[in-house]
Amino acid sequence: MKNIVIGQYIPGKGLFYRMDPRTKIISVITLMIAIFLLGSIPQLLVAFSVCAVMMWVGNIPVKRVIRGMKPLIILLLFTFFFQIFFNKEGKLLLDEVMHVTVVSVLGIVLWTILWRLLARIGKFKTVLLLAYIMGIFVLFRFLPFGYSFTTFRFAIYEKGIEMSIFVIIRLVIIISLSTVLTLTTKPTDLTQGLESLMRPLKIIGIRSEDFALIISISLRYIPTILDEAFKIMAAQASRGADFAEGKLKDKVKQVISLLVPMFIIAFKRSEDLADAIESRNFVPGKPRTRIHELRFGWTDIGVGIFTLAALALTIVLKVIG
Amino acid sequence: MAIHFQHVSYQYPSGSYQFYQAINDISLSIPSQGEMIAIVGQTGSGKSTLAQHMNALLFPSSGCVDIFGSTIRQKRDKKISYNHLRKHVGLVFQFPEYQLFEETVQKDIMFGPMNFKISAADAAVLAQKAIVQVGLDETYLKRNPFNLSGGEKKRVSIAGILALDPDILVLDEPTSGLDPKGKSQMMELFTAIQKQTDKTIIIITHDMDLVYRYMDRVIVMHEGRLIRDESPDRLFHRKNLAELHLDYPETISVLAAIKAQFSLDIDIYQKDMDAALVELRRAVGK
Amino acid sequence: MSYIEVKDLSFSYTGKRMILKDISLSIEKGEWVAILGHNGSGKSTLAKAMVGLLEPNQGTIAYDGVVLTNDTAYDIRKKVGIVFQNPDNQFVGVTVRDDIAFGMENLMVPQKQMLEMIDFYSEKVGMKDFLDKEPSTLSGGQKQRVAIAGILAMQTQVIIFDEATSMLDPYARRDLIEYIQKLNQEGITVIMITHDINEAMYANRLVILKDGTIFSDGDKWSLFKQPEIFENSHLELPFSLKLAAALDDSLPEEKAVKDFLWQSISNT
Fold it and tell me: For the purposes of burial, counting CB atoms within 10 Å of the CB of C178, is it exposed (0-12), middle (13-18) or buried (19 or more)?
């Protein structure tokens, strides 16, 4: 039993699971456009609550969505600090002198060590990271002792805070929307949805069915290829190529000893697959029926109307304000 | 004892991919000298998992494996060089495609020894010896491994491990995919190595004829457990092999069929054609 | 005229070395023909040529009177299917259901009908409980069964097995062959490419290829009486027949055992 979750799809029930993937894709894109048209924090907060309600209605576990944001915490932090540092408009809220001295630098070093030690525990990594960053500021501010290398001014303006909150809420909403999409849509359905939406590209000579087939075959082989990679690594490890150890020079050889067999196997596989597919009457470009047919339902119509209304509303708001 | 399993169990880490079958409470001793051991059992019984514990590719979930003095437990021990153990216990996998990667056969065979800090010059000599050992001549050294036939690739992959001169040799289905002549050539090779160097050779196989003719000891795996560890003679004298999803060697089953059909007094436990013929003639002549 | 007519077929990849030389073969509906040969004898090439994956340099292959060409290949492929050696490299679908559907999708079978066929044929090969399973969870033997279901679902009457059991373990191999036996009894024409004599024993007719030509073609009984044929073809007799060949015909007791051994080879 191999349980490989590709992407973030987790089987479940609810509003979003019932929808046609095409509606979901278009809705997500439309809503993202709508979000970008909003101009103020209150507007964003309304959008945020609407999203939250949507997720509640659709039975989406909030924990999963939050988990989906964890990898992007760095991005969020970067955005936050970017706005704080570079936005110098509005009222001055905070004006501190930061001292880079022997003592404060030493303090930073010790604080960093403490952070890494605590991080080993494994839990609360995000919280620890935030605490670590706050601690850096505190230490620079409150330890003006010893030889001073330099000082710098750390100023926070009202607009800076406002913009950073604004951008972060916007990012959070967008990430949540795409998480809901990948959470509730099987990769194969997503592929089929994209294929259907991209059919008009036939005009410029691109056949979306071919791409869809390529993608679905690739998805099918991910577990197989992973399995083979492990087997190859085991076979090479038996010859002394321990992937965990070794200098850089050795590493290059080790990687080659893994990649070459993988490529050779992949080429053989494509030859065999081509034969198999052709022998089963596949003709590129010829129309095919489908075992899974995408069908719109009332849910799709409802969500579609909602999305269009949201977009219209945001356009109006933009034009007015 | 060179390799000693003590109550070893292995389960794949939960939540990850199941590439290995579980094994359960295996206790087993492999001497460093002189045995030809077969590991048999149906697909999924844990044979490969067991083999990969022998050269520390896998660590037991519980219990421990002693390999030439190093004790392998679930937790990684910084003092043990696991990589080094693989020079002492050489494991050849079933499919050469997972192993061959160099431009020439010689370079590929040299890969193993050079990973263990043997100089290129010395490794080249080892490659020369190894290629001849597996029954291919030296002209193969300059050839591209990907242009070889299935049987030739198999031999090159075995040569790659022989070049390490391991103390114990473990091979996963070394004769599968070979024609009958190739099969016996391969088995003669292993028997020769075993006789000349007195090393222990462990072979995972489905071929019961091979087991009966060439092996001293059979380990039977079934659903992750070790259920028999005895001589081939003892194993094949048992009546219930079908329950263990095992076949009898051809000599035994054919002679048994003749015995049943003609009600002859035949000793069905013959290991090869000549012996079977002699015994058959004797029984028929009465 | 036979259902399948191969006439003077010659093929070469490079133009220098002929892989197949003047192969002529006639196969009737419902037959089970084993095509035996050593590695490099051309048997896989013959199999691929017979489904139009390779274009012959010379000669023709005809199904029910229709010669196989680029234009007729599409229709002929509705009549003949091929199961390849590597169970993984012919499994196209993300699930069992999708894979069985693949061929039918190519034939523009309407969805409702596809679902019925999948139900029926998955049951027939014993894989009905696995319809939603991914191929990475299946054994080699199971994947081969799915391949068979996919071919049967296209209403194919001839199935070529190109070393379809060689990557399976002995039990899965026996399982699959016994299933193929059932199919043949139901009327499916079976062409089995193999290098394993024990497998070939299930057929009644053995065609032995050697170096690209037909070395021998006939029913297995007459072949066994001529062990030299096997020797010269680089194949080896199964144990029971080697034993039989060593026995003395002139001694009645030994002859009785000899006949018994030949009988037991029929396997049905």
Answer: exposed
Smallest CA–CA separation between A72 and chain C, in Å? 30
**Rounded to a whole number, what is the distance in angstroms from the first to the last CA of chain C?**
29
Per-residue pLDDT at A3 exceeds 50: no
Distance, in Å, from the CA atom of C170 to the CA atom of A141, rounded to the nearest integer, reads 75
* Token pair recorded at residue B253: 């089953």
How much of chain C, in percent, has pLDDT values that exceed 90? 67
Q: How far is B167 from chain A (nearest CA, A)?
A: 14
Q: Which helix (H) or strand (E) holds B5?
A: strand B3-10
DSSP A40-61: SHHHHHHHHHHHHHHHHHTT--
Task: Please state, in angstroms and as integers, the Cα–Cα distance from residue C53 to each residue in A225, A280, B222, following that order.
Answer: 26, 11, 42
Say if residues C110 and C102 touch (Cβ distance below 8 Å).
no
- Are β-strands C4-11 and B225-230 bridged in parallel, bridged antiparallel, or unpaired? unpaired
Residues of chain C in contact with residue B254, where contact means CB-CB under 8 angstroms, are 239-240, 243, 261
Burial of B54 (0-12, 13-18, 19+ CB in 10 A): buried
Q: Please tell me whether residue C22 adopts helix, strand or coil conformation.
A: strand
Q: How far is CA C233 from the centre of its chain?
A: 19
The amino acid occupying position B223 is E
How far apart CA B181 and CA C132 sit, in angstroms, is 44
Burial pattern A20-55, b for ≥16 Cβ within 10 A else e, equals bbbbbbbbbebbeebbebbeeeebbeebbeebeebb
Chains A, C: CB contacts within 8 A come to 94
Residue B83 has pLDDT above 80, yes or no: yes
Nearest-angstrom CA–CA distance, A303 and A23: 8
> In chain B, what is the greatest distance between 2 CA atoms, to the nearest angstrom?
69
Contact B75, B61 (CB under 8 A): no
ipTM above 0.85, yes or no: yes
Which residue matches tokens 């089995």? Answer: C192
Mapped onto helix, strand or coil, the DSSP state of residue B89 is strand
Q: Which two tokens stand for residue A9?
A: 């799809």
- Which candidate, A170, A173, A149, A154, places its Cα nearest to that of A81? A154
* Contact of A291 with C114, CB cutoff 8 Å: yes
What tokens were used for C28? Answer: 């009737």
Q: What is the pLDDT of residues B270-280, one digit of tens each?
A: 988 899 999 98
B160/A239 CB distance under 8 A: yes
Residues of chain A found within 8 Å of residue C78, distances taken between Cβ atoms:
281
Interval B226-252: pLDDT, tens: 999 999 999 999 998 888 888 999 999
Q: What backbone phi and psi angles, to 5 degrees, belong to B28? A: -165, 145
- Contact call for A261 and B98, based on CB within 8 A: yes
Quick one: three-class SS letters along C92-142?
CCCCHHHHHHHHHHHCCCCHHHHHHHHHHHHHHCCCHHHCCCCHHHCCHHH
Kindly report the CA angle at B218 between B212 and B219, in degrees rounded to 5?
A: 150
